[in-house]
């Protein structure tokens, strides 16, 4: 009162003032701190603006906008504070979208996203997807859930609906596995910034070698006339393995060893009887074959899938590809070739080559086998069985399982880069003008034929590591390191998958009634284009035991199996005579007439050899994100 009087104001005056000028009451803000851990900061830095929206159980925040900094080449952490006028409740998802700076559609990949709520609760989101201009929803990482309640089912259905706009099916070639429709997958396309950092992070020596090999193409050399020319080409990039092969590739025990522990240990099998089209006699090999087969010492590599494949024409010269049968004998724990037939149909023009033949007769026969190995490995066991089938698993996964699903969380880590790499392979490797198309014996028509035939021969057992080893009767073969290492990895993955899925599927009915899961299995089968009668690949899964096996198979295919048939390519193919991509002469029809000059003339010409070396060098180079075991250094 005293203050009012001293100011000359009455109570009525004060009342009227506050009635016409109400006090401004500050609303309480709820700050949510979002931290983005970036996988590739160069591409991320190309964004002019970034928008973050939080979706909670009670409300959704307004879109928070911020400008992004420019941090080239470094892994960075970027923080955003989203102020909400009210508590939005338990956070269900984060929506992130950005506006890129310029005409290039840059994309970036968050490793993870953390969010701290006003109460101090920390949520963790996994960076499952590439981000471009599209909205991306990242579910809470620490809480995998089955869509068993209506609220979660609605959210998951909306996510799947959005995903299906991006992950659309397409057909690259008839009777190939279906693939992603790249035109509709804008958010999957790698931006130029990502490619720049990926290239710069590659081993400098690999890049320099490729550059040097490119320069050698200008040399005025057609066919090799001396082994020293091949050594000169190889010496500028030798690994310890490729150097060993350069010194030992002619030896029979090393030739046989590669079928077990080379880059393609997928063809060899133990036999108890000779094929009817391979008339090897005891006299030819100085062995009692029936007795040795009963002892488990006779093995076969049969390349019948290559029979009759139409071959390539390179530099206006017809190329050749054999479909050999190779008989091997295990002696004192060594696997040695004892007979080679280069064509499937026996006859006078199809001799059986033996180690006792003239040196270059036997060496040329082995070269034809290794060339067949190169083509079958690259097209069937590498391209088809790891890349193309992995793509089917991954596209179907993203079309049917929401990010909160435990199976999605188990497998998504194994999908990074696969779709982008496959899209590049269809453009750069196996297209009409692709590197493999132009520089392999199979060529355009042959690649198509081999993929189609191989797909029809794919079985569930051949994709499941333990079943494949058992089916080929290789469980007790000594010194078989692919089997030994692969078994450890399969068992580890199988146990991990079993432990995780057992937390969510308490009984088989939960597996059978999981609609999202069943849609994934069904769509995988349909778009894998498998032979329905003999593949054995499941169209549905109704038990936890079968589910664990299937998920383990997918995980193993996308990771360990691909590594086994990919990263050793330059080691085994870098020394070209050990595995020529093509042969320039037809398989010999008689013995005793092959000279060293004729052998060299049968190998790929100089430029084709250079191109194939470049290709396998790049394919087998470690990725920028390679993780090494410090105990193996």
From TrEMBL:
The record marks 130 as: Essential for stabilizing binding to COTL1. Binds 1 Fe cation per subunit. It holds the Pfam family Lipoxygenase. One of its GO terms (biological process) is arachidonate metabolic process. Its cofactor is Fe cation. One of its GO terms (molecular function) is iron ion binding. GO terms for cellular component: cytoplasm. Fe cation binds at residues 382, 387, 562. This is Lipoxygenase domain-containing protein. It comes from Oryzias latipes. The gene is LOC101162978.
């Amino acid at each position: 009162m005293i203050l009012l009087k001293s100011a000359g104001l009455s109570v009525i005056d004060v009342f009227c003032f506050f009635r016409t000028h109400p006090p401004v009451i500050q609303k309480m803000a709820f700050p949510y701190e979002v931290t983005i851990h970036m996988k590739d900061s160069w591409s991320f830095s190309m964004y002019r603006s970034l928008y973050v929206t939080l979706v909670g159980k009670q409300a959704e925040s307004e879109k928070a906008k911020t400008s992004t900094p420019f941090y080239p080449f470094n892994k960075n952490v970027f923080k955003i504070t989203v102020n909400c006028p009210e508590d939005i409740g338990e956070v269900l998802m984060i929506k992130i979208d950005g506006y890129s700076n310029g005409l290039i559609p840059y994309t970036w990949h968050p490793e993870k996203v953390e969010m701290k709520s006003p109460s101090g609760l920390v949520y963790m989101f996994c960076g499952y997807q590439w981000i471009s201009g599209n909205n991306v929803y990242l579910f809470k990482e620490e809480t995998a859930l089955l869509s068993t309640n209506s609220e979660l089912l609605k959210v998951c259905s909306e996510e799947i609906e959005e995903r299906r706009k991006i992950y659309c099916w397409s057909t690259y070639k008839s009777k190939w596995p279906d693939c992603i429709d790249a035109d509709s997958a804008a958010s999957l396309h790698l931006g130029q910034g990502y490619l720049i950092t990926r290239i710069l992070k590659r081993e400098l020596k690999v890049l320099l070698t490729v550059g040097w090999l490119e320069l050698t193409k200008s040399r005025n050399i057609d066919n090799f006339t001396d082994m020293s020319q091949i050594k000169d080409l190889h010496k500028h990039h030798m690994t310890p393995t490729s150097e060993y092969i350069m010194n030992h590739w002619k030896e029979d025990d090393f030739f046989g060893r590669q079928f077990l522990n080379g880059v393609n240990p997928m063809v060899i099998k133990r036999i108890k009887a000779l094929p009817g089209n391979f008339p090897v006699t005891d006299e030819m090999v100085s062995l009692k074959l029936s007795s040795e087969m009963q002892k488990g010492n006779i093995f076969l590599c049969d390349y019948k899938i290559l029979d009759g494949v139409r071959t390539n024409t390179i530099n206006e010269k017809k190329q050749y590809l054999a479909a050999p049968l190779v008989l091997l004998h295990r002696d004192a724990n060594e696997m040695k070739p004892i007979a080679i037939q280069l064509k499937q149909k026996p006859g006078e023009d199809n001799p059986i080559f033996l180690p006792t033949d003239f040196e270059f007769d036997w060496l040329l026969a082995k070269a034809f086998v290794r060339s067949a190995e190169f083509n079958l490995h690259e097209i069937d066991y590498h391209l088809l069985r790891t890349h193309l089938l992995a793509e089917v698993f991954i596209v179907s996964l993203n079309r049917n399982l929401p990010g909160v699903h435990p199976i999605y969380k188990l497998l998504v880590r194994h999908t990074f880069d696969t779709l982008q790499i496959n899209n590049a392979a269809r453009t750069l490797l196996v297209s009409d003008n692709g590197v493999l198309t132009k520089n392999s014996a199979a060529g355009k028509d042959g690649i198509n034929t081999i993929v189609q035939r191989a797909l029809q021969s794919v079985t569930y057992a051949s994709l499941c590591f333990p079943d494949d080893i058992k089916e080929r009767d290789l469980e007790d073969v000594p010194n078989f390191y692919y089997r030994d290492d692969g078994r450890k990895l399969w068992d580890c993955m199988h146990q991990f998958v079993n432990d995780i899925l057992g937390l969510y599927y308490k009984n088989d009915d939960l597996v059978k009634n999981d609609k999202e899961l069943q849609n994934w299995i069904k769509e995988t089968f349909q778009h894998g284009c498998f032979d329905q009668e003999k593949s054995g690949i499941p169209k549905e899964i109704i038990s936890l035991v079968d589910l664990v096996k299937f998920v383990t198979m997918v995980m193993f295919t996308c990771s360990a199996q691909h590594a086994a048939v990919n990263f050793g390519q330059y080691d085994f193919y870098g020394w070209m005579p050990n595995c020529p991509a093509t042969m320039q002469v037809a398989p010999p029809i008689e013995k005793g007439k092959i000279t060293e000059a004729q052998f060299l003339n049968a190998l790929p010409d100089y430029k084709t050899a250079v191109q194939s070396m470049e290709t396998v060098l790049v394919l087998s180079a470690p990725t920028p994100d390679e993780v090494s075991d410090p105990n193996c250094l």
